[in-house]
Design goal:
The chain has 208 residues and is α/β, with parallel strands linked by helices. 33% of the residues lie in helices and 43% in strands. The longest helix has 20 residues. The radius of gyration is 25 Å and the shape is globular. The protein starts with a helix and ends in a 9-residue tail after the last helix.
Length: 208
């Protein structure tokens, strides 16, 4: 391989690696019970988080996307509003029986990593001028500044439970980068969940 082609190839690989490392979602694991072949019909969606607004948005966005694919969805925050990050199993089981759902989809954060990023060497320049004694006299100023901002990396586990067997039949684990509002990360992550469900043949593709 010639030298120019070699460097072009290395540069292309570097770009791919950088793009992957900066991606907001990184899939860690997808699993499905081999014998499970029932598509979602009526599902209870539960997002376990201490932030009420995040839970409601997460469940709403997920419910809307699944509904677009012909799934009947019940939002957990509407029927189990006081659910904590460690819910009482008997309370959930009783509600599941009452609702008559055939599956339960549960999403929760299982770990969090916070990284502080620094941006050094920014420069702000300015100046002014005054007229005195027949001439203009000016001065300028400048100073540097440093910025820092936090990026959170959440590892999110999403599991699908079959009501008849009371066992998990599908799971998706992903690392989600959150560098701004968490609501924005929800809007990016939920389609990834649905895409994995489609790939596992548990939901249909979006209806036209």
């Amino acid at each position: 391989m010639s030298t120019p082609k070699f460097f072009c190839t290395c540069f292309a690989l570097l770009l791919v690696m950088l793009t992957a490392s900066c991606a907001p979602i990184k899939t860690l694991d997808v699993w499905k019970e081999e014998t499970y072949a029932k598509p979602l019909k009526k599902v209870l969606v539960i997002v376990l988080t201490q932030e009420k607004s995040v839970r409601e948005q997460f469940e709403n966005v997920l419910a809307n996307q699944l509904s677009d694919r012909g799934v009947e969805v019940i939002r957990g925050y509407k029927v189990l509003p006081g659910l904590s990050t460690k819910p009482d199993r008997e309370t959930v089981v009783a509600k599941v029986r009452e609702l008559g759902v055939d599956s339960v989809l549960v999403a929760r954060s299982i770990s969090k990593q916070e990284i502080t990023n620094h941006q050094y060497g920014g420069v702000i320049l300015g100046g002014s001028a005054v007229y005195s004694d027949g001439g203009w006299y000016g001065y300028s100023y400048g100073y540097t500044y440093d910025k820092q901002y936090d990026t959170d990396y959440f590892t999110i586990s999403t599991k699908l439970y079959d009501v008849d067997t009371a066992k998990p039949v599908w799971s998706y684990i992903a690392q989600v980068r959150v560098s701004g509002a968490r609501q924005g990360a929800v809007n990016v992550f939920v389609p990834a969940i649905v895409e994995q469900l489609e790939g596992s043949e548990l939901v249909n593709t979006k209806r036209p």
